[in-house]
Amino acid sequence: MAASTTTEEPLRLSELLESGWRLLEEVEDGSAAEPSSGAPAVQRKVQRGIGLLERAAHAVAELQLFSHNEELEEISSADLKFMLVPALLAAFVLKQVNPSKRLEHVQRARAGFMDFLKICKDYGIGHFELPREMEVESRDESESSSSSFNSVPGSDQQAVILAMASHRQAKIQRYKQKKELENQLATLKPFIDGGQAEDEQIREFYLLHIKKWISTSLEEIESIDQEAAILIRRDALKQGTANQPPRPLGPPLKPFILTRDAAQAKVYGTGYPSLATMTVDDWYEQHLKQGALPDQGISQAASAAAEKQQEEEKKGEEKDDDEALRKAREWDEWKELHPRGYGNRKNMG
After folding, report:
1. How many CB atoms lie within 10 A of CB 59?
2. Residues 6 or more apart in contact with residue 297 via CB below 8 angstroms
3. Could you give phi then psi for residue 231, rounded to 5 degrees?
4. Distance between CA atoms of residues 21 and 52, nearest Å
5. How many other CB atoms sit within 10 Å of the CB of residue 277?
6. Tens digit of pLDDT for each residue in 228-238?
7. Fewest C-beta atoms under 10 Å: which of 48, 148, 246, 313?
8. Contact criterion met (CB below 8 Å) for 120 and 214
9. What is the mean pLDDT of residues 190-198?
10. Count of CB atoms within 10 A of residue 218's CB?
């Protein structure tokens, strides 16, 4: 049987539960007008809610409000709401934002939801199957599980398909039941808030909340199992990468040409501009030896070649000038020997 409680203890415990529950509704409804759950204001509410509900859970354990040896009818209507403490605390734990401790948080939240479901199962509240304990797969098992469906015989595949269909149907049924519970709660809530509810209405109100959180806990545990599997695989990959020795560096790769055969390459070419005959480093070393780099000034060889070219151009210009002068003189002499009209003997009077 549950231990008897004093008038002062349940009141203090009730305040802890109601304050934590109210904070959870504010965080979920977004009444704080924050853009994300990782905002500092939201996280402060999360931490405050965790502190309140942890104190409530400790008080429930000390007072021994629930026992495996009693029936649901033996619990007072005012104490029914304290069954929700593990589920509300688990919901707060899931809302913590800390990537380095995410796996720890989801495992703790799953344990809280499981504790809540076990209490409900002991008292016969709702019809559901307890989820299995979370199994931590090894890296090889997690990699082989992805191809396990294709490796089983046809009859086993049919059984897997039927199980998946049954699981989907159960999720749809839980969703419909949750919506129906929310509608019933919305009908009773004005009486509870107004203090006009009778003992039977109060009992039904909290039982409906417990059934609603049973559905929520089953959904959260399913999501937690999927997320935990991903987190475990990620950590295994990180450890494998850290333990793997560095790959030795091989010789530098040489450029190659993709052609159908050597004969075609000789006739048609590569189909794109020829490859470079030297690397940038080779070009730099060659010009460094010649002293032709911009920061080394103009080399002596380059200066001599430039002077020689200028002299040749100057000689060529002088030679062209002499040739033009000779042709001009010859033309003047020819005009003196052949005056205008010379040799034209026709039409003379």
Report:
1. 19
2. 291
3. -65, -40
4. 9
5. 7
6. 999 999 988 88
7. 246
8. yes
9. 82
10. 19
